[in-house]
Design brief:
By secondary structure, this protein is mainly β. The chain is 0% helix and 61% strand. A hairpin with a 5-residue loop joins strand 9 and strand 10.
Amino acid sequence: QVQLVESGGGLVQAGGSLRLSCAASGRIFTINAMGWYRQAPGNQRVLIATITRSGNTNYADSVEGRFTISRDNAKNTVYLQMNNLKPEDTALYYCNADIITLPLPARGPYWGQGTQVTVSS
C-alpha cells in the first residue's frame, strides 16, 4: 500500500509564510507528477501547483509568484512554500501524486489526508 502524509499547516497572519510537506511511502516503484490542491469551505477542490519528476512546474494564477512547489525524489517528498499569505488562501490543502507501485504495472493517483491552512487578517 502507498500512503501520502502531509504536514506543515497551521494558523498564520496575513503576509506570513508556511511550508507544507507531503511524503509518500510504501511499495513505490516511481513517482511521476506531484501536485497540491486546496479546498475552501463550500468550494470545489482546485489545483494550485504541479511539478513533474524532472522539476517542471505550473501554478494557478491565484498563487503564481507567491507559492513555490519543489520535490526531493530521493525522499519521495513534495513541498509547497507559501509566502505572502492572504486570508483567501485559507483552505484544506491536499497533495496528490501519480505513483507507479509494486508489483508492476500498478499505477494510480494517490491523495494525502489534507492539512489545514488558516490565514487571519
